[in-house]
Amino acid sequence: MGLRDRAKALKREALTLWVAARDPRTPLAAKLLAGAVAAYAFSPIDLIPDFIPVLGLLDDVLIVPIGIWLVLRMIPAPLLAEYREEAADLAERPVSKTAAVAIIAVWIAAISLTAWLLTR
């Protein structure tokens, strides 16, 4: 499996976690972790910016795959198969630029609020 195929598989699994986080049948601990990992995987903002040599890509190479692995172990197999099927359907839909703008706006608001609270 090439690097491009692995990246697509990782994206597909992150989308599976997003589906799992929204389903009430997912165990609570898995749901919380799935939501956090999916949000981090799809967020344009990283804990460690990518322009920092080595460390910048380390979070993408380690944090996301380990988080996905942990959550996938927490979800029952029949539900996981269903979530993967729904994620495959979602992956075929066109990308929403509006959602991307909304995510960036939320991150900017969160960072601004944090900065404001720290400087008070």
UniProtKB/TrEMBL annotation:
InterPro entries: DUF1232 (IPR010652). It is found in: Endomembrane system. Residues 30-65 form the DUF1232 domain. It is a multi-pass membrane protein. The chain crosses the membrane at residues 51-72, 99-118. Keywords: Membrane, Transmembrane, Transmembrane helix. Its main location: membrane. It holds the Pfam family DUF1232. One of its GO terms (cellular component) is endomembrane system. This is DUF1232 domain-containing protein.
